[in-house]
Amino acid sequence: MATGFEIHDLVWAKMKGFPAWPGKIIEPKPEVKRPANNKKVHHFIFFFGSENYAWIPEENIYLYSDHRDKFKLEKRVPKGFKEALEAIEDELKEKPFIKKKTDGGQNTNKSTETQTQAKRKRVSSSDDNPKQKKPKVIAKVTGSPSKITLSPEHKLKPKIRAELPSPRPEHNLPMSPPSHSYIQASLSPGNASASTQIEETLLKVKPVAKPSVIPTPMRIGFLGLGIMGQGMVMNLLRSGHEVTVWNRTALKCRDFVKSGAFKGNNPAEVVQSCDITFSCVADSTAVKDLVFGNYGVLQGISKGKCYVEMSTIDEETMQDVAEAITARGGVFLESPVVGSRVPALEGQLIILAAGERKLYDECYSCFEAIGKKSLYLGADIGAATRMKLIVNMVMGTVVAGLAEAMAMAEKVGLDQEDVAEVLSVGALSCPTVIHKSQAILSQRYDPHFPLQHQQKDLRLSLLLGDKVEQPLYVASAANELYKKARRLGYGESDISAVYRAASN
Ligand code: NA7
Hints:
Layout: E1 10-13, E2 21-25, E3 42-47, E4 53-57, E5 61-63, H1 81-94, H2 112-118, E6 139-141, E7 148-150, H3 152-155, H4 158-161, H5 192-204, E8 220-223, H6 227-238, E9 243-246, H7 254-258, E10 262-263, H8 267-273, E11 276-279, H9 284-292, H10 297-300, E12 306-309, H11 315-327, E13 331-334, E14 337-338, H12 341-346, E15 349-355, H13 357-362, H14 364-370, E16 371-376, H15 383-411, H16 416-425, H17 431-442, H18 451-467, H19 473-487, H20 498-503
Parallel strand pairs: 8-9, 8-11, 9-10, 11-12, 12-13, 15-16
Antiparallel strand pairs: 1-2, 1-5, 2-3, 3-4, 6-7, 13-15, 14-15
Ligand NA7 is lined by residues 187, 189, 224-229, 247-249, 252, 280-283, 285-286, 289-290, 311-312, 450, 453.
Protein backbone atom coordinates (compact mmCIF):
# COMPACT_ATOMS: atom_id res chain seq x y z
CA MET A 1 0.00 0.00 0.00
CA ALA A 2 1.42 3.39 -0.95
CA THR A 3 2.15 5.60 2.03
CA GLY A 4 3.63 8.97 2.72
CA PHE A 5 6.51 7.63 4.77
CA GLU A 6 9.32 5.17 4.58
CA ILE A 7 11.60 3.27 6.90
CA HIS A 8 14.16 5.51 8.66
CA ASP A 9 12.06 8.65 8.36
CA LEU A 10 12.42 10.81 11.42
CA VAL A 11 8.99 11.84 12.58
CA TRP A 12 6.76 13.21 15.26
CA ALA A 13 4.37 10.41 16.19
CA LYS A 14 1.32 10.89 18.28
CA MET A 15 -0.40 8.16 20.19
CA LYS A 16 -3.91 8.73 21.46
CA GLY A 17 -3.82 10.45 24.80
CA PHE A 18 -0.11 11.32 24.57
CA PRO A 19 1.78 14.34 23.25
CA ALA A 20 3.47 14.05 19.85
CA TRP A 21 6.86 12.43 20.46
CA PRO A 22 10.12 12.30 18.44
CA GLY A 23 10.40 8.97 16.69
CA LYS A 24 11.57 7.07 13.68
CA ILE A 25 9.85 4.67 11.34
CA ILE A 26 11.49 1.28 11.65
CA GLU A 27 10.90 -2.24 10.38
CA PRO A 28 8.03 -3.81 12.31
CA LYS A 29 8.91 -6.24 15.07
CA PRO A 30 7.18 -9.50 14.28
CA GLU A 31 6.21 -10.00 17.89
CA VAL A 32 4.20 -6.78 18.02
CA LYS A 33 0.75 -7.39 16.67
CA ARG A 34 -0.44 -5.20 13.83
CA PRO A 35 -3.45 -3.06 14.73
CA ALA A 36 -6.78 -4.74 14.14
CA ASN A 37 -8.14 -1.71 12.30
CA ASN A 38 -6.58 -2.27 8.89
CA LYS A 39 -8.58 0.45 7.18
CA LYS A 40 -5.98 2.95 8.35
CA VAL A 41 -2.36 2.85 7.21
CA HIS A 42 -0.12 2.33 10.25
CA HIS A 43 3.64 2.65 10.62
CA PHE A 44 5.88 1.03 13.15
CA ILE A 45 7.52 3.75 15.22
CA PHE A 46 10.57 3.68 17.43
CA PHE A 47 10.27 6.39 20.08
CA PHE A 48 13.46 8.20 20.99
CA GLY A 49 14.32 8.59 24.64
CA SER A 50 11.92 5.98 25.86
CA GLU A 51 13.13 3.33 23.38
CA ASN A 52 9.58 2.08 23.07
CA TYR A 53 7.97 1.16 19.80
CA ALA A 54 4.41 0.89 18.60
CA TRP A 55 2.11 0.91 15.60
CA ILE A 56 0.82 4.42 14.94
CA PRO A 57 -1.78 5.44 12.33
CA GLU A 58 -0.27 7.50 9.52
CA GLU A 59 -2.65 10.37 10.23
CA ASN A 60 -0.86 10.83 13.55
CA ILE A 61 2.63 10.97 12.07
CA TYR A 62 4.39 14.11 10.84
CA LEU A 63 7.73 14.29 9.11
CA TYR A 64 10.13 15.74 11.65
CA SER A 65 12.04 17.91 9.22
CA ASP A 66 8.81 19.60 8.11
CA HIS A 67 7.53 20.16 11.59
CA ARG A 68 10.68 20.50 13.61
CA ASP A 69 9.31 23.03 16.08
CA LYS A 70 5.64 22.27 15.79
CA PHE A 71 5.35 19.93 18.75
CA LYS A 72 8.12 21.19 20.96
CA LEU A 73 6.70 21.59 24.42
CA GLU A 74 7.34 24.63 26.50
CA LYS A 75 5.16 23.87 29.48
CA ARG A 76 4.61 20.60 31.32
CA VAL A 77 7.46 18.91 29.53
CA PRO A 78 7.07 15.16 30.14
CA LYS A 79 9.88 13.11 31.55
CA GLY A 80 12.25 12.00 28.79
CA PHE A 81 10.95 14.46 26.22
CA LYS A 82 14.05 16.65 26.25
CA GLU A 83 16.30 13.61 25.80
CA ALA A 84 14.12 12.36 22.98
CA LEU A 85 14.45 15.70 21.21
CA GLU A 86 18.22 15.65 21.64
CA ALA A 87 18.35 12.13 20.24
CA ILE A 88 16.32 12.96 17.15
CA GLU A 89 18.34 16.12 16.57
CA ASP A 90 21.58 14.10 16.87
CA GLU A 91 20.29 11.65 14.34
CA LEU A 92 19.18 14.41 12.02
CA LYS A 93 22.65 15.91 12.17
CA GLU A 94 24.25 12.55 11.50
CA LYS A 95 21.99 11.58 8.64
CA PRO A 96 20.40 14.66 7.14
CA PHE A 97 19.90 12.87 3.85
CA ILE A 98 18.28 9.65 4.88
CA LYS A 99 17.46 8.19 1.53
CA LYS A 100 16.15 5.23 -0.30
CA LYS A 101 15.03 4.43 -3.78
CA THR A 102 12.22 6.73 -4.71
CA ASP A 103 11.64 6.16 -8.38
CA GLY A 104 13.26 4.15 -11.09
CA GLY A 105 15.62 2.58 -8.59
CA GLN A 106 17.69 5.74 -8.31
CA ASN A 107 19.47 6.54 -5.13
CA THR A 108 19.61 10.27 -4.89
CA ASN A 109 21.17 12.72 -2.53
CA LYS A 110 18.36 15.17 -2.38
CA SER A 111 18.14 17.65 0.40
CA THR A 112 15.76 17.02 3.23
CA GLU A 113 13.37 19.48 1.65
CA THR A 114 13.35 17.66 -1.68
CA GLN A 115 13.02 14.43 0.13
CA THR A 116 9.90 15.78 1.71
CA GLN A 117 8.45 16.63 -1.66
CA ALA A 118 9.31 13.20 -2.92
CA LYS A 119 7.96 11.34 0.04
CA ARG A 120 4.45 11.12 -1.32
CA LYS A 121 5.76 8.84 -4.07
CA ARG A 122 7.41 6.43 -1.76
CA VAL A 123 6.34 2.92 -1.21
CA SER A 124 5.97 1.18 2.11
CA SER A 125 8.65 -0.18 4.37
CA SER A 126 8.76 -3.69 3.03
CA ASP A 127 11.11 -2.82 0.15
CA ASP A 128 13.77 -1.33 2.38
CA ASN A 129 17.24 -1.42 0.91
CA PRO A 130 19.27 -3.79 3.07
CA LYS A 131 22.51 -2.03 2.15
CA GLN A 132 21.39 1.13 3.80
CA LYS A 133 22.77 1.92 7.19
CA LYS A 134 20.47 0.42 9.75
CA PRO A 135 18.57 2.78 12.00
CA LYS A 136 20.38 3.65 15.14
CA VAL A 137 18.46 2.10 17.94
CA ILE A 138 19.34 2.37 21.55
CA ALA A 139 18.28 -1.14 22.43
CA LYS A 140 16.96 -3.59 19.97
CA VAL A 141 15.06 -6.81 20.25
CA THR A 142 16.56 -9.74 18.45
CA GLY A 143 15.33 -13.24 17.97
CA SER A 144 12.58 -13.17 20.51
CA PRO A 145 10.81 -10.46 22.42
CA SER A 146 12.80 -11.33 25.46
CA LYS A 147 16.21 -11.13 23.89
CA ILE A 148 17.77 -7.74 24.09
CA THR A 149 21.06 -6.58 22.70
CA LEU A 150 22.61 -3.22 23.00
CA SER A 151 23.97 -1.46 20.01
CA PRO A 152 27.42 0.10 20.02
CA GLU A 153 25.78 3.48 19.48
CA HIS A 154 24.05 3.00 22.74
CA LYS A 155 27.28 2.56 24.58
CA LEU A 156 28.43 5.91 23.25
CA LYS A 157 25.47 7.70 24.71
CA PRO A 158 25.77 7.70 28.44
CA LYS A 159 23.11 10.34 28.82
CA ILE A 160 20.47 8.29 27.09
CA ARG A 161 21.76 5.09 28.58
CA ALA A 162 21.12 6.47 32.01
CA GLU A 163 17.50 6.78 31.02
CA LEU A 164 17.21 3.19 29.91
CA PRO A 165 15.45 1.95 33.01
CA SER A 166 12.64 4.29 32.27
CA PRO A 167 11.14 3.48 28.91
CA ARG A 168 8.29 4.84 30.89
CA PRO A 169 7.79 4.56 34.58
CA GLU A 170 4.41 3.11 35.36
CA HIS A 171 3.81 5.80 37.92
CA ASN A 172 4.55 8.46 35.35
CA LEU A 173 2.65 6.92 32.57
CA PRO A 174 0.56 9.49 30.82
CA MET A 175 3.53 11.69 30.18
CA SER A 176 5.52 9.73 27.61
CA PRO A 177 4.95 7.38 24.69
CA PRO A 178 2.93 4.21 24.86
CA SER A 179 3.63 1.83 27.63
CA HIS A 180 2.69 -1.25 25.67
CA SER A 181 5.75 -0.72 23.59
CA TYR A 182 8.16 -1.13 26.42
CA ILE A 183 11.30 -3.08 25.63
CA GLN A 184 11.32 -5.86 28.10
CA ALA A 185 13.36 -8.78 29.22
CA SER A 186 11.74 -11.98 30.36
CA LEU A 187 13.12 -13.89 33.27
CA SER A 188 12.87 -17.52 32.44
CA PRO A 189 15.02 -19.51 34.84
CA GLY A 190 18.47 -20.06 33.53
CA ASN A 191 18.09 -17.41 30.89
CA ALA A 192 20.15 -14.83 32.59
CA SER A 193 21.07 -13.32 29.29
CA ALA A 194 17.58 -12.13 28.61
CA SER A 195 17.10 -10.55 31.95
CA THR A 196 20.53 -9.22 32.55
CA GLN A 197 21.66 -7.91 29.22
CA ILE A 198 19.58 -4.84 29.73
CA GLU A 199 20.65 -4.64 33.33
CA GLU A 200 24.24 -4.98 32.22
CA THR A 201 23.97 -1.62 30.60
CA LEU A 202 22.01 -0.18 33.45
CA LEU A 203 24.67 -1.22 35.86
CA LYS A 204 27.45 0.24 33.78
CA VAL A 205 25.66 3.52 33.70
CA LYS A 206 27.35 6.20 35.69
CA PRO A 207 25.48 5.98 38.96
CA VAL A 208 22.45 8.19 39.11
CA ALA A 209 22.21 7.79 42.83
CA LYS A 210 19.63 9.78 44.68
CA PRO A 211 21.73 12.64 46.02
CA SER A 212 20.32 12.38 49.49
CA VAL A 213 21.28 8.73 50.00
CA ILE A 214 24.27 8.28 52.24
CA PRO A 215 25.04 4.55 52.03
CA THR A 216 25.36 2.70 55.28
CA PRO A 217 28.86 1.34 55.89
CA MET A 218 27.27 -1.97 56.83
CA ARG A 219 27.76 -4.89 54.46
CA ILE A 220 24.57 -5.72 52.60
CA GLY A 221 23.63 -9.16 51.31
CA PHE A 222 20.92 -9.78 48.73
CA LEU A 223 19.37 -13.16 47.94
CA GLY A 224 17.21 -13.47 44.83
CA LEU A 225 17.85 -11.72 41.54
CA GLY A 226 14.41 -12.02 39.99
CA ILE A 227 12.60 -9.07 38.45
CA MET A 228 12.38 -7.27 41.77
CA GLY A 229 15.78 -8.25 43.14
CA GLN A 230 17.59 -7.07 40.04
CA GLY A 231 16.15 -3.57 40.26
CA MET A 232 16.75 -3.31 43.98
CA VAL A 233 20.36 -4.52 43.83
CA MET A 234 21.09 -2.18 40.98
CA ASN A 235 19.91 0.77 43.03
CA LEU A 236 21.81 -0.36 46.10
CA LEU A 237 24.99 -0.52 44.03
CA ARG A 238 24.31 2.78 42.35
CA SER A 239 23.91 4.49 45.67
CA GLY A 240 27.26 3.18 46.84
CA HIS A 241 26.27 0.27 49.08
CA GLU A 242 28.56 -2.71 49.39
CA VAL A 243 26.45 -5.62 48.21
CA THR A 244 27.01 -9.38 48.14
CA VAL A 245 24.56 -11.24 45.92
CA TRP A 246 23.36 -14.80 45.57
CA ASN A 247 20.79 -16.29 43.24
CA ARG A 248 19.70 -19.89 42.71
CA THR A 249 20.56 -19.52 39.03
CA ALA A 250 24.09 -18.27 39.56
CA LEU A 251 24.46 -16.83 36.06
CA LYS A 252 22.20 -13.95 37.01
CA CYS A 253 24.88 -12.72 39.43
CA ARG A 254 27.41 -12.20 36.67
CA ASP A 255 26.56 -8.69 35.59
CA PHE A 256 26.13 -7.47 39.13
CA VAL A 257 29.58 -8.79 40.00
CA LYS A 258 30.96 -6.96 36.97
CA SER A 259 29.40 -3.85 38.43
CA GLY A 260 31.02 -4.19 41.79
CA ALA A 261 28.92 -6.66 43.76
CA PHE A 262 30.47 -9.58 45.59
CA LYS A 263 29.11 -13.02 44.99
CA GLY A 264 28.27 -15.51 47.70
CA ASN A 265 28.35 -19.22 47.01
CA ASN A 266 25.25 -19.95 49.05
CA PRO A 267 22.77 -18.12 51.30
CA ALA A 268 24.63 -19.11 54.48
CA GLU A 269 27.86 -17.62 53.21
CA VAL A 270 26.14 -14.37 52.28
CA VAL A 271 24.53 -14.04 55.68
CA GLN A 272 27.82 -14.83 57.42
CA SER A 273 29.75 -12.25 55.47
CA CYS A 274 27.17 -9.47 55.70
CA ASP A 275 25.58 -7.38 58.42
CA ILE A 276 22.11 -7.14 56.88
CA THR A 277 20.83 -9.66 54.32
CA PHE A 278 17.74 -9.00 52.23
CA SER A 279 15.85 -11.72 50.42
CA CYS A 280 13.29 -11.40 47.63
CA VAL A 281 12.28 -14.69 46.04
CA ALA A 282 9.20 -16.12 44.39
CA ASP A 283 6.99 -17.60 47.10
CA SER A 284 6.74 -19.42 50.42
CA THR A 285 8.36 -22.57 49.06
CA ALA A 286 11.32 -20.58 47.77
CA VAL A 287 11.66 -18.79 51.11
CA LYS A 288 11.60 -22.07 53.03
CA ASP A 289 14.21 -23.58 50.70
CA LEU A 290 16.36 -20.53 51.10
CA VAL A 291 16.11 -20.21 54.87
CA PHE A 292 15.85 -23.80 56.08
CA GLY A 293 17.70 -25.58 53.26
CA ASN A 294 21.24 -26.86 53.16
CA TYR A 295 23.69 -23.96 53.37
CA GLY A 296 20.58 -21.88 53.91
CA VAL A 297 20.17 -18.55 55.66
CA LEU A 298 19.71 -20.11 59.06
CA GLN A 299 23.13 -21.72 58.95
CA GLY A 300 24.68 -18.29 58.53
CA ILE A 301 22.74 -16.60 61.33
CA SER A 302 24.58 -15.83 64.54
CA LYS A 303 24.03 -13.24 67.26
CA GLY A 304 23.28 -9.81 65.82
CA LYS A 305 22.97 -10.89 62.17
CA CYS A 306 20.12 -9.06 60.51
CA TYR A 307 17.72 -10.61 58.01
CA VAL A 308 15.02 -8.81 56.00
CA GLU A 309 12.44 -10.88 54.15
CA MET A 310 10.97 -8.96 51.19
CA SER A 311 9.14 -11.80 49.43
CA THR A 312 5.35 -11.82 49.48
CA ILE A 313 4.44 -15.02 51.28
CA ASP A 314 1.89 -16.32 53.75
CA GLU A 315 1.98 -14.94 57.26
CA GLU A 316 2.66 -18.32 58.87
CA THR A 317 5.83 -18.89 56.87
CA MET A 318 6.91 -15.33 57.65
CA GLN A 319 6.42 -15.99 61.35
CA ASP A 320 8.24 -19.34 61.18
CA VAL A 321 11.18 -17.65 59.54
CA ALA A 322 11.15 -14.81 62.07
CA GLU A 323 11.13 -17.26 64.97
CA ALA A 324 13.94 -19.35 63.52
CA ILE A 325 16.12 -16.30 62.91
CA THR A 326 15.55 -14.77 66.33
CA ALA A 327 16.03 -18.14 68.04
CA ARG A 328 19.60 -18.09 66.74
CA GLY A 329 20.21 -14.58 67.99
CA GLY A 330 19.44 -12.90 64.68
CA VAL A 331 17.31 -9.82 64.10
CA PHE A 332 14.30 -10.00 61.79
CA LEU A 333 12.24 -7.60 59.71
CA GLU A 334 9.52 -8.49 57.21
CA SER A 335 9.48 -6.03 54.38
CA PRO A 336 7.43 -6.81 51.28
CA VAL A 337 7.48 -4.11 48.62
CA VAL A 338 4.73 -2.58 46.50
CA GLY A 339 5.66 -1.97 42.87
CA SER A 340 6.75 -3.94 39.86
CA ARG A 341 9.65 -4.03 37.47
CA VAL A 342 9.93 -0.37 36.50
CA PRO A 343 9.54 1.11 39.99
CA ALA A 344 12.12 -1.46 41.16
CA LEU A 345 14.54 -0.33 38.45
CA GLU A 346 13.92 3.29 39.27
CA GLY A 347 14.15 3.03 43.02
CA GLN A 348 10.50 3.97 43.38
CA LEU A 349 9.12 1.07 45.38
CA ILE A 350 6.92 1.40 48.45
CA ILE A 351 8.43 -0.51 51.33
CA LEU A 352 6.16 -1.99 53.99
CA ALA A 353 7.88 -3.16 57.12
CA ALA A 354 7.10 -4.85 60.42
CA GLY A 355 9.30 -6.41 63.06
CA GLU A 356 12.38 -5.08 64.81
CA ARG A 357 12.27 -1.28 64.75
CA LYS A 358 16.01 -0.88 65.19
CA LEU A 359 16.64 -2.95 62.11
CA TYR A 360 14.09 -0.91 60.18
CA ASP A 361 16.08 2.21 61.12
CA GLU A 362 19.34 0.58 60.13
CA CYS A 363 17.89 -0.18 56.71
CA TYR A 364 17.25 3.51 56.17
CA SER A 365 19.80 4.15 53.41
CA CYS A 366 18.89 0.90 51.62
CA PHE A 367 15.20 1.75 51.68
CA GLU A 368 15.99 5.22 50.45
CA ALA A 369 17.95 3.75 47.56
CA ILE A 370 15.26 1.31 46.45
CA GLY A 371 12.08 3.13 47.31
CA LYS A 372 10.15 6.34 47.33
CA LYS A 373 8.40 5.66 50.61
CA SER A 374 8.76 3.26 53.49
CA LEU A 375 6.24 2.52 56.21
CA TYR A 376 6.92 0.90 59.53
CA LEU A 377 3.74 -0.89 60.60
CA GLY A 378 4.80 -2.07 64.04
CA ALA A 379 6.54 -4.95 65.73
CA ASP A 380 3.82 -7.48 64.90
CA ILE A 381 5.26 -9.83 62.24
CA GLY A 382 2.61 -10.29 59.59
CA ALA A 383 1.30 -6.72 59.54
CA ALA A 384 3.37 -5.79 56.49
CA THR A 385 2.38 -8.97 54.69
CA ARG A 386 -1.29 -8.27 55.36
CA MET A 387 -0.91 -4.76 54.02
CA LYS A 388 0.82 -6.06 50.91
CA LEU A 389 -1.92 -8.64 50.31
CA ILE A 390 -4.65 -6.02 50.66
CA VAL A 391 -2.88 -3.81 48.10
CA ASN A 392 -2.38 -6.67 45.67
CA MET A 393 -5.97 -7.79 46.12
CA VAL A 394 -6.99 -4.41 44.74
CA MET A 395 -4.46 -4.71 41.94
CA GLY A 396 -5.60 -8.20 40.99
CA THR A 397 -9.30 -7.36 40.90
CA VAL A 398 -8.77 -4.12 38.98
CA VAL A 399 -6.71 -5.78 36.27
CA ALA A 400 -9.09 -8.75 36.03
CA GLY A 401 -12.00 -6.31 35.66
CA LEU A 402 -10.13 -4.41 32.98
CA ALA A 403 -9.38 -7.65 31.12
CA GLU A 404 -13.05 -8.64 31.13
CA ALA A 405 -14.10 -5.19 29.99
CA MET A 406 -11.63 -5.23 27.09
CA ALA A 407 -12.75 -8.71 26.09
CA MET A 408 -16.40 -7.67 26.15
CA ALA A 409 -15.72 -4.45 24.27
CA GLU A 410 -14.41 -6.42 21.34
CA LYS A 411 -17.42 -8.72 21.35
CA VAL A 412 -19.91 -5.85 21.31
CA GLY A 413 -18.18 -4.24 18.35
CA LEU A 414 -16.20 -1.51 20.08
CA ASP A 415 -12.66 -0.61 19.16
CA GLN A 416 -10.48 -1.56 22.13
CA GLU A 417 -8.20 1.36 21.38
CA ASP A 418 -11.15 3.68 21.89
CA VAL A 419 -11.98 1.99 25.18
CA ALA A 420 -8.39 2.44 26.32
CA GLU A 421 -8.50 6.08 25.35
CA VAL A 422 -11.75 6.74 27.19
CA LEU A 423 -10.32 5.07 30.27
CA SER A 424 -7.12 7.06 30.00
CA VAL A 425 -8.85 10.43 30.05
CA GLY A 426 -11.55 9.75 32.61
CA ALA A 427 -11.69 9.29 36.35
CA LEU A 428 -10.35 5.74 36.01
CA SER A 429 -7.12 6.98 34.53
CA CYS A 430 -4.24 5.64 36.58
CA PRO A 431 -0.90 4.04 35.72
CA THR A 432 -2.24 0.52 36.16
CA VAL A 433 -5.32 0.96 33.98
CA ILE A 434 -3.42 2.83 31.28
CA HIS A 435 -0.41 0.54 31.29
CA LYS A 436 -2.32 -2.71 31.38
CA SER A 437 -4.86 -1.65 28.76
CA GLN A 438 -1.95 -0.82 26.46
CA ALA A 439 -0.42 -4.24 27.13
CA ILE A 440 -3.76 -5.86 26.26
CA LEU A 441 -4.03 -3.79 23.08
CA SER A 442 -0.59 -4.73 21.88
CA GLN A 443 -0.82 -8.27 23.29
CA ARG A 444 2.64 -7.86 24.75
CA TYR A 445 2.81 -9.52 28.10
CA ASP A 446 6.48 -9.15 29.01
CA PRO A 447 6.52 -9.54 32.77
CA HIS A 448 6.47 -6.43 34.88
CA PHE A 449 4.61 -8.34 37.55
CA PRO A 450 4.39 -12.06 36.74
CA LEU A 451 0.81 -13.32 36.61
CA GLN A 452 1.66 -16.34 38.76
CA HIS A 453 2.70 -14.03 41.58
CA GLN A 454 -0.55 -12.10 41.32
CA GLN A 455 -2.52 -15.34 41.53
CA LYS A 456 -0.44 -16.40 44.52
CA ASP A 457 -1.25 -13.10 46.22
CA LEU A 458 -4.98 -13.50 45.55
CA ARG A 459 -4.84 -17.02 46.92
CA LEU A 460 -3.11 -15.72 50.05
CA SER A 461 -5.66 -12.92 50.35
CA LEU A 462 -8.50 -15.44 50.18
CA LEU A 463 -6.88 -17.46 52.96
CA LEU A 464 -6.63 -14.31 55.01
CA GLY A 465 -10.30 -13.60 54.31
CA ASP A 466 -11.16 -17.12 55.51
CA LYS A 467 -9.45 -16.50 58.81
CA VAL A 468 -11.52 -13.45 59.58
CA GLU A 469 -14.70 -14.66 57.83
CA GLN A 470 -14.60 -11.78 55.41
CA PRO A 471 -16.54 -12.59 52.23
CA LEU A 472 -14.38 -11.93 49.18
CA TYR A 473 -16.70 -12.40 46.20
CA VAL A 474 -14.81 -10.18 43.81
CA ALA A 475 -11.34 -11.39 44.74
CA SER A 476 -12.49 -15.03 44.51
CA ALA A 477 -13.85 -14.49 41.02
CA ALA A 478 -10.69 -12.69 39.96
CA ASN A 479 -8.61 -15.53 41.36
CA GLU A 480 -10.47 -17.99 39.12
CA LEU A 481 -9.63 -15.90 36.09
CA TYR A 482 -5.92 -15.83 37.00
CA LYS A 483 -5.99 -19.59 37.59
CA LYS A 484 -7.40 -20.05 34.13
CA ALA A 485 -4.69 -17.79 32.67
CA ARG A 486 -2.04 -19.91 34.41
CA ARG A 487 -3.59 -23.04 33.00
CA LEU A 488 -3.41 -21.47 29.55
CA GLY A 489 0.33 -21.06 30.06
CA TYR A 490 0.55 -17.38 31.04
CA GLY A 491 1.98 -17.85 34.54
CA GLU A 492 5.29 -16.22 33.72
CA SER A 493 3.73 -13.50 31.58
CA ASP A 494 2.68 -10.16 32.90
CA ILE A 495 -0.48 -9.91 35.00
CA SER A 496 -2.18 -8.22 32.00
CA ALA A 497 -2.18 -11.61 30.24
CA VAL A 498 -5.23 -12.39 32.36
CA TYR A 499 -6.98 -10.89 29.34
CA ARG A 500 -6.26 -14.15 27.52
CA ALA A 501 -8.35 -15.99 30.07
CA ALA A 502 -11.13 -13.42 29.86
CA SER A 503 -11.28 -13.49 26.07
CA ASN A 504 -10.89 -17.23 25.69
P1 NA7 B 1 10.67 -13.56 39.80
O1 NA7 B 1 11.14 -12.61 38.79
O2 NA7 B 1 9.75 -14.67 39.42
O3 NA7 B 1 11.97 -14.18 40.49
C1 NA7 B 1 11.84 -15.16 41.45
C2 NA7 B 1 13.15 -15.29 42.22
O4 NA7 B 1 12.98 -16.32 43.19
C3 NA7 B 1 14.34 -15.70 41.35
O5 NA7 B 1 15.50 -15.10 41.85
C4 NA7 B 1 14.35 -17.21 41.53
O6 NA7 B 1 15.60 -17.78 41.28
C5 NA7 B 1 14.02 -17.29 43.00
N1 NA7 B 1 13.55 -18.63 43.39
C6 NA7 B 1 12.44 -19.26 42.97
N2 NA7 B 1 12.33 -20.46 43.57
C7 NA7 B 1 13.41 -20.58 44.38
C8 NA7 B 1 13.85 -21.59 45.26
N3 NA7 B 1 13.15 -22.71 45.44
N4 NA7 B 1 15.00 -21.39 45.94
C9 NA7 B 1 15.70 -20.25 45.77
N5 NA7 B 1 15.32 -19.25 44.95
C10 NA7 B 1 14.18 -19.42 44.27
O7 NA7 B 1 9.93 -12.82 41.00
P2 NA7 B 1 9.93 -11.27 41.34
O8 NA7 B 1 11.30 -10.80 41.50
O9 NA7 B 1 9.00 -10.55 40.43
O10 NA7 B 1 9.18 -11.31 42.76
C11 NA7 B 1 9.85 -11.71 43.92
C12 NA7 B 1 8.91 -11.55 45.10
O11 NA7 B 1 8.49 -10.20 45.23
C13 NA7 B 1 7.62 -12.36 44.98
O12 NA7 B 1 7.26 -12.84 46.25
C14 NA7 B 1 6.62 -11.36 44.46
O13 NA7 B 1 5.29 -11.71 44.80
C15 NA7 B 1 7.06 -10.07 45.07
P3 NA7 B 1 16.00 -18.23 39.78
O14 NA7 B 1 16.52 -17.00 39.13
O15 NA7 B 1 14.72 -18.75 39.16
O16 NA7 B 1 17.01 -19.29 39.98
